Amino acid sequence: MKPALNQNALDQLFLQAHSYNQFTDQAVSEETIEQLYDLLKWGPTSMNTQPARYLFLRTPEAREQLLPALMDSNAEKTRQAPLTVIIASDTEFYEHLPTQFKAYDAAPMFRENNALAEATAFRNSSLQGAYLMLAARALGLDAGAMSGFDPEAVNKTFFPDGQWKVNFIVNLGYGAEGGHHPRGDRLSFEQAAQIL
């Protein structure tokens, strides 16, 4: 039986973590970005589909291209963030299945059923985006996820060939003191869960 994580780890990942809107000006190194991916890639996806694709915007110039697609409240915090990640899904993720899922040839199932491919890509890239945020917290980074943006504008700017499609966006960095709102309440177990 595996031991539970200690209290410090639980605090860092969940109990004391916040969604950050402001970060220090400390850069996130390329080495840290690669380490982040090397952690998050191990999060499970259905049939090991791994549809998420990540565009890391490190430079102010790269982030400036994103700002017109963001709601005003998201634009300023993104302008100031040291790193922004566009989490997208690859509409042709199934072409990697022969090497990533070897149980049987699953690619035709998705290639011939666009609705199934779209649902699988969205569901699993969402999971992988959550893994990214947890991996970031595990590495001492802070995260602020955003969904207030124009997807068509993001796709036109960053993914014009149409194969990748934006799912959501996350700012990453080292959270500034006071750079988050007070934590909101959470639903109780009785409100959110049942045991049958």
Question: Your description of this structure?
Answer:
With 196 residues, the chain is an alpha+beta fold. Helices cover 42% and strands 15% of the residues. The chain has 9 helices and 4 strands, in the order H-H-E-H-H-E-H-H-H-E-H-E-H. It has helices at 7-15, 30-40, 60-66, 72-80, 97-100, 107-111, 114-138, 151-158, 189-192, and strands spanning 52-57, 83-90, 142-146, 164-173. Strands 1-2-4-3 form a 4-stranded antiparallel sheet, sandwiched between helices. The two termini are 25 Å apart.
Q: In terms of topology, how is this protein built?
A:
Blueprint: H1 7-15, H2 30-40, E1 52-57, H3 60-66, H4 72-80, E2 83-90, H5 97-100, H6 107-111, H7 114-138, E3 142-146, H8 151-158, E4 164-173, H9 189-192
Antiparallel strand pairs: 1-2, 2-4, 3-4
In short:
The chain is 42% helix and 15% strand.
Radius of gyration: 18 Å
Percent in strands? 5-15%
Query: What is the share of helical residues?
Result: 40-55%
Strand order within the widest beta sheet: 1-2-4-3
Oligomeric status: single chain
| Tally of DSSP helical segments | 9
Q: Could you list some keywords that capture this structure?
A:
196 residues, single chain, four-stranded antiparallel sheet
